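Researcher: Next entry: BZIP domain-containing protein (Phytophthora citrophthora).
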Amino acid sequence: METSQLNTVKALLKQEVLTSEEQAQRRQERRRRQGRMSQRRYRDRKGSAEYNLMLDVNNLREHVQRLQSMRELLETKVWSSRLACVSTALKAAEQYYTVFSHGMHNSDAGRKRFELQVGFVKAFMDEDVEFGDSRGVSAVLNQWQLYTQFHASLSVRVISAQICGTEDAPIVIVKGVLAVRLNRSSIENMFPHIIANEELVQALLSREIEYPTSTTYVFNKNMQVERQDLDVDFITGINNRLGSTYATSRVMQRALISDCCKLGQVASPNADVDVRLSMSYILS
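Model: Predicted structure:
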């Protein structure tokens, strides 16, 4: 009986030992399964994060593309606006030369053409336009009148035009040619000191003279000229005609031409002509 009980106890102990090993194996297997599950969950989380990151990157790329498109659109609008201003200023300056291609029309002989020229200048220039040491549209028109009056014939043409400045205040610089034929009135009103030198006078009267010109038009925000700077290269034109720097210096040394290329610095002997040349009188 004791032997039988002893065998039973041994069998139970052996069974307990086997059960412990099995339990250990099971625990190890559970840990493995848990590890695999953790790894799977980690991979799932990592994959989900990468996927979400890819979505974010794509969204950012689309947003950047939209911003770039908006920027290009705005740049196009700004450029179009600037281009329109540039085009307007250039066309206005070129049209100015067309309107006055042969000087100022006589207010009595061609009233409509005269009024067209006056109307154009009033639209093209600010009413208080600065012109050398003078101001106002009448000062500009008065010089056109004097230039026309003091020459037998006159014509102007554009050689080139360029623009600079800002969109709100463009500046147009026009290079051109002022072609004239002098007459006795020209000599009397511009070069009276050479009247006694008939040989020199005849040399000036015999052929057309071309003066290079450079005119700067400064526009305001209303696209009207607020300042006009005129430069007529009388020396080059006369020197090309006479072919002598000495003769040219004699002509220009006491010429009645101001620093801003204005004429009419001395009153004419004929008071009636002086009155008719006054733009304030003509425009009144």
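Model: Note for the record: Strands lie at 125-131, 134-135, 153-165, 170-181, 209-219, 225-232.
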